[in-house]
Specification:
The chain is mainly α. Helices cover 66% and strands 0% of the residues. The protein has one domain (2-104). The chain crosses the membrane at residues 80-102.
Length: 105
Amino acid sequence: MIGREYMYKIPKVVIPDSAKEYRPPKVKLTLKEIKQLSDDELMMLLSGEGQSGIIPAPLLQAISYELTSRQIKKSSKPHWTIIPTFIVACIAAIAAIISIYISLR
């Protein structure tokens, strides 16, 4: 009878004490620090290569937002050909006006 009671007894210590003591460090960054990091460094943080430790969800969101806002800023800049194209169009319009004036004279 004693053997059966021991067989169904639930152990009190499920997690060993050594496992309870270790907690990986959390990565802590401020918004200023995030804005100072390069795109490559932010990508390394998102992939887990940048620092050892746990990255909290709000920090992951802030890093992702910073990368997205940088990409939007880069893509919203006008292409370098816009200004030269405008200048060529103005020269063509002036040349057309001069040719019309000469032909009507």
